[in-house]
Design brief:
387 residues; alpha/beta; 2 domains; two-stranded antiparallel ribbon; 11% strand; binds 5,6-dihydroxy-NADP; binds zinc ion
Amino acid sequence: MENFVFQNPTKIIFGRDTEGQVGKETKEYADRVLLHYGGGSIKKSGLYDRVVASLQEAGVDFIELSGVQPNPRLSLIKKGIELCRQHQINFILAVGGGSVIDSAKAIAVGVPYAGDVWDFFERKATIREALPVGVVLTIPAAGSETSPASVVTNDDGAWKRDIGSDLIRPKFAILNPELTYTLPAYQTACGVADIMAHIMERYFTRTRNTDLTDRLCEATLRTVIKYAPLALANPTDYSARAEIMWAGTVAHNDLLGTGRIEDWGSHMIEHEISGIYDVPHGAGLAVVFPAWMRYVYHEDVNVFARFAARVWDVEPDFDHPEKTALAGIERLKEFFRSLGLPVTLGELKVGDDRLEEMAAKCTARGPVGNFKKLYKEDVYAIYQLAR
Ligand code: NZQ
Ligand code: ZN
């Protein structure tokens, strides 16, 4: 096991009707806030009205910025930064999914910074200050509600890049599983793929003697595998929605990565797809992850055989562990397919023409991943396997 520091300070408020506490929680930090949200699902569901009522009741003034698109754009973030400066806003309230939260986080680091906020994403500047951010989560997926990351697409050139700093971990995150009842089936499935990917990026490690975190990863994966079909079959099944929502946070709050070197190659490979083709991140991962697995499994077959046996109940073939490993990869792919997700680049309408460019962009800052370091040729080969 590797040495580690684990500190996740985000206050989680979980359960039915908890969005009614948003005013009180926000008031702890500010009297004037930016209410940030997406394309309108929160208005349709009535959540917007409840959030506004709670803010008003707590005496919190707000201005709003809506219109965050999935794969959040830099242009709207710049608008948000200007708005906050004009109105002396010092708190951002994100009501939505990963895209809204990530947009809020980028605004939060951009307001106190004199330069171009994209500098942080290009590693030209270091984050030293950020406005506090609070969250009401509407989709379990990205895990951004407790993560130190923000992933943003620069409209100019379709560069999807990330930043990371403990300063942008949200102060609080309100998680009411009932808010996810209105999710379209495809979005639920994309969220599930992302949650599973966050666990698998940590599970597939070369670090030895990490039994507790192996088991925690397996338990969280098994929970999602059990409840995802139930949530799809009955979107208002509270228990299923609750298990998935909590799993989404646990998957990405760093606990499952403690003591081990994490991978993250598949995420980097996927970001080039959603950055250019504007597909949901989870759908991109459902395509990339099984291909990544097939490309790297022979580097350490036993880890993949263990994944197959413990997560998917594949009968181990002790004489041929690679057969067990491959059966596990196939089960994952079948599971994604059963949720209605794409498993090939063709299904995402990603052709061959830009694969080389994507592999070059993905590795522009050096190789990606840790289970096996992946250079441009490797990433290209993985895109080929995903066709
Ligand atoms: O915009 P609205 O109208 O709200 O609709 C959204 C959006 O179209 C809809 N939606 C959300 N909650 C809903 C709902 N529709 C009905 N009922 C609800 N309750 O779902 C669509 C997708 O929303 P989005 O926020 O894009 O989804 P997600 O949470 O999957 O976020 C994806 C983004 O997060 C990034 C991804 O790259 C992607 O850009 N990630 C962020 C991470 C982080 N910050 O730590 C880590 C992840 O690996 C990921 O990269
Ligand atoms: Zn992800």
